[in-house]
Amino acid sequence: MYVCLCHGVSDKKIKQLVLEEGIADMRSIRKCTALGSQCGKCVKQAKQILNETAAQLYKQAC
């Protein structure tokens, strides 16, 4: 599913950045994808995906 229509960023891309690149904050995601730099409607949903993915990663580590 596309999260950021302006820049074509999907939920899979956000999850990939968290899981494979170790990115854990919106600033880093914005640097890699330009997410939220145009209309900003995607930021809330992107934060939710980021937090959920990071929580899953943490649970797997424990």
From TrEMBL:
Cofactor: [2Fe-2S] cluster
Signal sequence segment: none
Keyword Cytoplasm in annotation: no
Highest taxon above the source species: Bacteria
InterPro entries in the cross-refs: BFD-associated_ferredoxin, BFD-like_2Fe2S-bd_dom, BFD-like_2Fe2S-bd_dom_sf
Residue span(s) of domain BFD-like [2Fe-2S]-binding: 2-52
Gene3D superfamilies: BFD-like [2Fe-2S]-binding domain
Keyword terms, alphabetized: 2Fe-2S, Electron transport, Iron, Iron-sulfur, Metal-binding, Transport
Single GO molecular function: metal ion binding
Family: Belongs to the Bfd family.
Name listed for the protein in its UniProt record: Bacterioferritin-associated ferredoxin
Organism field: Vibrio scophthalmi LMG 19158
